[in-house]
Amino acid sequence: MLAKIGDWLDERFSWREVWAAIFERKVPHVNWFYTLGSATLFVAINQAITGILLTLYYVPTPDHAYDSVVYITTQLPFGWLIRGLHHWGASAMVVLTVLHLLRVFYFGAYKYPREATWITGIILLLIVIGFGFTGYLLPWDQKSFWATTVGTQIIGLAPFVGDWMLRIARGGRDISAVTLARFFGTHVWILPATLAALVGIHLYLVIRIGITGVPKKDE
Amino acid sequence: MDKSEGKQLGRRNFMKVAIASIGGVIGAAIGLPAIPYIMGPALQKESDDWIQLGSISKVELNIPTLFKKTIETQTGWIDTEEEISAYVLTSNGQDYVVMSNVCTHLACRVRWIPEQDSFFCPCHNGVFAKDGAVVAGPPPRPLDRFESKVEDGVIFIKRG
Question: What is the pTM of this model?
Fold first, then answer.
């Protein structure tokens, strides 16, 4: 039955070709460091799923944001688990992305013909940091409020355009309801959309070009 | 050649099973808790405390009288006020019937129209008699009744 459905779909979508291109492609003999990219993708999927679940209850307004987070953590069944996975996953995201970058750097995998993969990867690192920065404010407790005060103040130190960029980041002079709403919107719409598009390009390039092997002594 | 191919197939299958099982465990670790997480608030029981509606002295014989009561409730993370409306009816001044003003068709609020001696629902023209029985329109059953009691001239209801 399942095979029949698979055949029916394959006749229309040629999905087996796609499957083979992704999962049955030839790879050089490599080591465990080459799994860091997959690990990053795995945690990104965890962030997406737990993040979607959190938006079922979280509200991005100063009068209720913290209450809704407390409600998720203490009142809902397994709310602590969903939030915990998202919280620790966020740190794991940054750590894994950087380790993945270091692997690519030290193994020289950014060179021709993989420059575009490297560049999309660097933008992805910036997006991951953007996720961390915008997500940190959302619980709206003392720590997140003051961390964002400091973080946005640093934007203000940029020469000439600093004050202007600070006001754009905060949506005004101070951290306010506007700041919380735009950080939330950035965190759940702008960054995920950009991330999804770039991960698509990144993975397409990885599969299309193939991955590098471990460099040899004379290379 | 044959032997090594057979061996490779075995390893390949082992990896397939291993990946599927580990993936299944991880999927279940997030997927299963997600179900109570989503359903949690829906399963919460409403309190069955007696709610004091007010004095029955304003209820006249055979005329459904509207009582409104504001109670404090908690919905999710917000403390809020909720207004409960109910029609109280008595035919002998001894026994009281408390009817919900929620139409049994699709939950719009019904209103007592004294001139027509009936309850009327504006959404789909449902009409109920003074005791709540369906007179016309789409409602499938009479108006719901609250469990009620009268103590010292004050009427209480319980929400089911």
Answer: 0.88
